[in-house]
Design a protein that fits this description.
- There is one protein chain.
- The protein has about 700 residues and is an alpha/beta fold.
- It folds into five domains: about 90 residues, Arginyl tRNA synthetase N-terminal domain (Gyrase A, domain 2, 2-Layer Sandwich); about 190 residues, Rossmann fold (3-Layer(aba) Sandwich), CATH 3.40.50.620; about 120 residues, no CATH class; about 100 residues, no CATH class; about 140 residues, Isoleucyl-tRNA Synthetase, Domain 1 (Orthogonal Bundle), CATH 1.10.730.10.
- It is built from 28 helices and 16 strands.
- The strands form five sheets. It has a four-stranded parallel sheet with strand order 5-4-12-13, sandwiched between helices.
- The longest helix is centred in the C-terminal third of the chain and has 24 residues.
- The two termini are about 30 Å apart.
- About 5% of the residues have low confidence.
- The structure holds one RNA strand of 77 nucleotides.
Length: about 700
Amino acid sequence: MVLELETKLGEAIRATLKENYDLAVENVPLETPPDLRFGELATPVAFELARKLRKAPRVIAQEIVAALGAVEGFAGFEVAGAGYINARLDRGFAARLVVESESHPSHKNKDVARVGHPDSGPMGHPVHSLVEHTSINPNKAAHIGHLRNAILGDTFVRLLRAAGQKVDVQNYIDNTGVQVADVVVGFLHVERKSAAQVRALVAECEMRAASEGHAAAIDYYCWDLYARTSQWYGEGSEDKQAAKKKLRYDTLHLIEHGGNETAEIAELISTAVLRRHLETMLRLGIEYDFLPRESEVLHLKFWESAFEQLKKTGVLYFETEGKNKGCWVMTRPGAETRDGETDEDAKVIVRSNGTVTYVGKDIAYHLWKFGLLDRDFGYQPFFRYPDRECWISAVESRKDHPHFGGATAIYNVIDSRQSDPQANVIQALRGMGHTAEADHYTHFSYEMVALTPRCAVELGYTVAEEDLGRPYIEVSGRKGFGVKADDLIDKLIAATRAEVDARQTGRDGAERRKIAEQIAIGALRYFMLKYTRNSVIAFDFKDALGFEGETGPYIQYAVVRIRNIFRKGETTAEAVLEQQVSESASQRFSEPESQHDAASGAVAAFLSGQANEDIWALWLRAGRFSLVLEQCIAASEPAYLAKHAFQLAQEFNNFYHKHHILTEEDPRRKTFLLATAAVVLRELVKALALLGIESPEAM
RNA sequence: GGGCGAGUAGCUCAACUGGAUAGAGCACCGGCCUUCUAAGCCGGGGGCUGCGGGUUCAAAUCCCGCCUCGCCUACCA
């Protein structure tokens, strides 16, 4: 509603400026005034024009208001302060828009349709986006840092889909990297297991995990082994360490090459760990469409194809001088190149020994994402979700496989430490002439999750003296320093379960368990989403286990309260909204010329006056959804929606305490209050769903 | 050395991307449960937005210079 009216007002003002001053203003700035006293929408446009028109802003504002006349949906305009134009909505009209926006299946939400089709998309066609997130090295259990990545990515996917985009969700698996090599070294050389013993161990872990829980699973086993192996590399004499280092890289090369027993073990372990990651993420409602793996990027020779393109377009050049002599290198973004001078700072893509760097492989992979590579992955089914299949890359395809890649816009959810390599890939695309693709390549970057020193001590880690004074300490998979994702989820469920058991004595164990899980996941997802992306989260159990104040459960609780009202009132939110829609529709039909028909006139009366300002504010907030959705997508910032949901819940709680609905004596007002609750319920449930948070029946 | 990000209430964070009186949550103090669930509500204290200049009708936000902190910056992957 707000977005729709804001757009309408912007267009009206633009037309006025064109007509009266012959000025073409592209974007009329519109904002929400700090207080309802100033109306619901405002624009400072007169300030900008003051210099150009050589008039006082206040005078310009008055002229604009006079020329504007009546605009549908608005009750009036006024000039305030030094030259603001404040707009007051026609409250009955606005309320009707809010009620109708999505309660009727036949009614297309105009606001959302607009968000879903940014300029990048071909006319009338939805944008095809590709979001890549999670991408955990498959050599250890997922930890809280990975949770932030996956939750941010998954939420953003939900937002894009809500805006009408076609979205593929990918989770890139680096199954041939040094991290996987390290656990393979751990199994074969630290634990001195044979290949057969490793196979037996993986099978045993799977069995034990089924009965004892995920603490017995392979990813937990590898967590410790990886940390031990990392430490092991640094032990012993210099000669010993050098030998270990050689072992490490020999193992890595065997894995990269494939077709040998070491590679088979790596495949076995990485696949088993990957399955665990998918299970962990599924606990949070996170699913993937496709798992491209580095092994296929290598074996299907993506790089060889990309290399030709890179050479042909001159993005890569062969260095003949300096420290990078003998390498194929690329100029870094923003670097100043002087003719004749060797660029010592250039990024090496192909080493002098002929091997390609990670960035090189990444360029090839990203050409594939945009459909610019003449090769494709093979596809095999890998993991079954309740309502769909998750596919994995393979050399050979199974018949009837789907096809991925070829997107028009991509989002890579990767932490901010990777911004340099990401910038290199974008630079390469741009250099190759793929400017549209480079423009639609978004590094969805975010800051890390770290532990507070207190939390680290609490977990039994020894913390260095100088770290005790810091606000946070970076987690490290290599050191085994961090909080495992499944452990945290378990801990949250245990805490909510205790509370639900105490409150919901009338429900059976299965029901209580379900509610506890919904609340725990709600708490976790909201916790990860309430911070804006580039704020470091200093993790502490005290904060994460809190269920009061600005938390997921707070919002869920508001939902439960509203549901209780309808249950006790023996009606449903749907019925109340349906009634509102049909009433206003019939009124409009009988009096088509009247803008203030009886139904919306009555609603307007309940929304007017000093005593009802808080209720109007609630409706206004409820009508902001599409505006918030648009901002979330434009800024790649899911936190805005989290904030919106919280504020709506907060305003509702306020309303809830102030106005007792079921004991309201005036039947018309009671219906109106029920409609208010119904609208808030609908908007809260919708916002929570986009945040990946379920709305429990009770709590 | 260069690049990116951050510095806002005791603590953790917001501030619609330059707008009107800088807002929330924790924590602390004081009220509210025979009325739709107290995982809630109301009230209170708390701020030189790191420092110094500049740009303009308007700066937490943009520019310049400092000061702190974090990350990135290998022919490793």
